Amino acid sequence: MRKVSGIIDRFEGNFAVVEINGVTKDINKSLFPKEATVGDVIEFDGEKVTILKNETEKLRKEIEDLMNDVWED
């Protein structure tokens, strides 16, 4: 199975709702590392989930920069 990347949108019960290519998917929370949080960029290979820490930090920085641009004026 090929690896798929996505972003954790939220947790609902026993599932993580992950946005993958603009579509949300429910993935069993037991596949995620315990430290997984909303907004993390993840890689999913069908059997386990890996948090992509560098990609997550990059995304958070981009969002922070966009918010700063909006609130400057």
Tally the beta strands.
Answer: 5
Distance between the termini: 48 Å
The amount of beta strand, in percent, is: 35-45%
What is the count of structural domains? Answer: 1
Radius of gyration: 13 Å
What general outline do the C-alpha atoms trace? elongated
**What does the main sheet amount to?**
5 strands, antiparallel
CATH topology: SH3 type barrels
SSE pattern: EEEEEH
Please state the structural category: alpha+beta
Q: How much helicity do the residues have?
A: 25-40%
CATH class, anyone? Mainly Beta
User: Under the CATH scheme, which architecture would be assigned?
Assistant: Roll
Low-pLDDT ranges? none
- Give the strand order of the largest sheet, numbering strands 1, 2, ... along the chain: 3-2-1-4-5
The total count of helices amounts to 1
Average residue-wise pLDDT: 91
Core attributes:
1 helix, five-stranded antiparallel beta sheet, SH3 type barrels, alpha+beta, 26% helix, 73 residues
Provide a descriptive summary of the structure in words.
By secondary structure, the protein is α+β, with helices and mostly antiparallel strands. The protein has a single domain, classed as SH3 type barrels (Roll), CATH 2.30.30.140. Helices cover 26% and strands 38% of the residues. It has one helix and five strands; from the N terminus they run βββββα. A hairpin with a 4-residue loop joins β4 and β5. The termini are far apart.
Produce a short descriptive summary.
The protein has 73 residues and is α+β, with helices and mostly antiparallel strands. It contains one helix and five strands; from the N terminus they run βββββα.
